[in-house]
Amino acid sequence: MKSATALKRGGGYLLAGAVALASVIATSADAAPAWLKGAFGKHSHVPQAQNNIVARYHIDAGGAFILDRSSPRTLLKFDDSPEVWVLGGSHGPRGDMIYTSDLGRPLVRVTHMGGTTVFTPERPDGSAASEVGAAAPLRLTTLGPGGLYHVLIQSSARASKAARHLIGFEAPDADPTSDGLIADAAVVASEAVIALSTDSDNRPILSRVTRVEILRGGQPGASLRGNVVNITVVPPLGVAGRPSSQRILFAMGVR
Question: Could you give the 3-state DSSP secondary structure of residue 222?
């Protein structure tokens, strides 16, 4: 079993060589068009009594999430996934607020009375959720070269295990201003690969991928070129400066 090697390139770190396919707990962040269904349906709930800016919610059908409205972009994180979703907001019927992903797919609906509905791949028609208390804000942290290297290794291991072949993760131009966001993007990219692996119809797409490259740029995005998934991050935007797993899957051809 070979160990991974960190090669410095342009102030960043390149993850190269074989990575041990260690046993990793994998959670899917699949994004299905069915999320659109029921976004404006009748899943209202009893108004929340607390209405914290950063709050923890329990989902009636099971599970929990944190909704963070303390910054210009609303953030969402489910307990069973490492991905933080950056949400856009728009007003729906009856004054409801619809929070959507960067592909415009609904994730949360909040009624004018405070009732909350969450939409997931398992519950595309929506499930009511209740606020249970305040929570800590969702924030990126600076990791340093060693921390970023570790995240790249782990992301490669998780993606490689799901794909059943080696997928290397590279960050050739990482620096102290971008390492936290690049690490977060690597985790999200590995979530996309894991989601892709759960559908046999998408196996031909996944079989092509041998590398994920994360670079800084002017606009967050993702693309698949040959056997490389290219992820573009914009450090000044914080967590909003990288694409979601939905957008990465869309770029890889998943509809």
Answer: strand
